[in-house]
Structures are given as C-alpha cells and as structure tokens.
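User: Can you recover a sequence for this backbone? Please restate the input before giving your answer.

Assistant: Of course. Working from this structure:
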C-alpha cells in the first residue's frame, strides 16, 4: 500500500507534481500530517541524511491569506539540505526564496520558558535563505498538505554565524529587511511580520508546538520568512539588506 509519505517522496525524487492530499482525503488533518512527515524523515535518514535542525513555516502572518494557511508549521532541516551556494534549481519543484534569520542553539529550550531564559539557549545568529518548494501545482494546498511535505523545505543557505549577544537578540525584534534580486529591490519586510515579535517569537512557538519533544543543543532553527516567498529562476543572484542588526552579508545565486 502506498502511503502519503511514499507519494510525497516519489514527487520530490522524480520532480513529478501531485494533487494535494486533502483533495482526495478531506479529513487529512495536522496530527496525521506530522505522522506522514515523520515517516518521510525516517526514510531520508535511512538514505543517509542527518537531521541538523528545524525550519518554521508560515510564521509570517502577512502571507497567511495568500496561502490559506493560518498558523505556523515546522519540519526538519538535514545536513543534505543545509547547503552552500550557488544552488542548481533543477532539483526543486516550483522553488521560491525566503529571507530568514537562523539561530544556532547552545542549550535545549523548554516550553514555558521566560523570554530571557529562551534567549540564553541561543548561541549564534546568521542570515539565511530558505528555498521552499511545492509538490502541489500552483502552490495550492491546505496546512496538512504542507506539513506532510516536510513543511515544503527544499534547502537552507546561511551566512556566517555571529555570537548571540543580548543586544543582538533584542534587536532581532526590530529588523527592517529589503530583499534584492540582481541588485533591484523586490520586497520589504520587518521582524514584526513574524508572529508579531520576530525570530524569537517563532522559536518560542516552535518550542511550544513540540512540547516534550525538545530541540537539541547544536541544532539550527530557521525562523520563517521576513518578506513574501518569491519565485526564483536560474541565473538570478539574491541578497538582503538588513537595518537594525549587524549580521554578516549573504548572497545566493542560482544555476
């Protein structure tokens, strides 16, 4: 019997789009979706990948209506998807780029931690670009479809990490971001787009969602796009300018 995880893996492996699961199974819900995601993750681990972190998705509340998804989701980042550029796009389905802030954990955060305690769990901070992809044509789906599909994670590229000083962590709630393609400004965003409070709000939500399934020290956490997610094509070069925090630059080209 072909499982949901099998169907999604086949779509990604062969770059063959598929209908959303919820089209044929309207009762497919988030608990079942996370079960399917766990099966998909287990298969990738058996193939040799190692989970090195988590991505949060749909933390940017300004894009909820666009995608008809109205709450954050999450999924794994692997050592095989945490990559350096330039990135070839042939391996992705309808890829889009998301400028994000990436955190590296120094300790395992617990649900219900105070903001200061949560900050103490963060070792380093970097700029990031997540490449998200959709096996569902036209990016038409419901939230459980996205969760089952690994939270739509395709790849993560990060800049150099810098120490997570108290001043830097405080400033993460006040970032102005401009996303540029080939030197032209394409979109603008702000930290408040991410659950109203920025990357640390995304981390707190992720910790709460996972409950007793704690995030290990050493993992990286990609906290969600600060702008819209925008389509990418070969030959483009993307970067960001960030006002409000001194983070090493990051440029990503596609082939």
């Amino acid at each position: 019997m072909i499982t949901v995880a099998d169907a999604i893996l086949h779509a990604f492996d062969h770059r063959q789009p598929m209908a959303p699961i919820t089209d044929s199974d309207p009762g497919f819900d988030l608990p079942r979706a996370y079960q399917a995601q766990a099966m998909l993750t287990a298969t990738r681990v058996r193939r040799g990948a190692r989970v090195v972190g988590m991505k949060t998705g749909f933390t940017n509340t300004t894009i909820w209506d666009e995608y008809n998804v109205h709450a954050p989701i999450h999924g794994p980042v692997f050592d095989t998807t945490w990559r350096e550029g330039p990135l070839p796009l042939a391996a992705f389905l309808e890829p889009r780029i998301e400028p994000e802030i990436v955190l590296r954990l120094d300790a395992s955060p617990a649900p219900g931690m105070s903001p200061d305690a949560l900050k103490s769990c963060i070792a380093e901070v970097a700029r990031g670009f997540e490449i998200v992809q959709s096996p569902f044509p036209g990016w038409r789906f419901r939230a459980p479809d996205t969760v089952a599909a690994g939270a739509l994670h395709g790849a993560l590229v990060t800049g150099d990490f810098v120490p997570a000083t108290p001043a830097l962590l405080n400033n993460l709630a006040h970032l102005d971001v401009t996303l540029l393609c080939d030197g032209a400004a394409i979109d603008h965003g702000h930290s408040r787009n991410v659950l109203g409070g920025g990357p640390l709000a995304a981390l707190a939500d992720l910790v709460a969602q996972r409950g007793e399934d704690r995030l290990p020290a050493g993992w990286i956490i990609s906290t969600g796009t600060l702008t819209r997610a925008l389509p990418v094509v070969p030959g483009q070069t993307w970067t960001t300018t960030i006002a409000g925090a001194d983070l090493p630059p990051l440029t990503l080209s596609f082939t």
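That completes the design. The mean pLDDT is 97.
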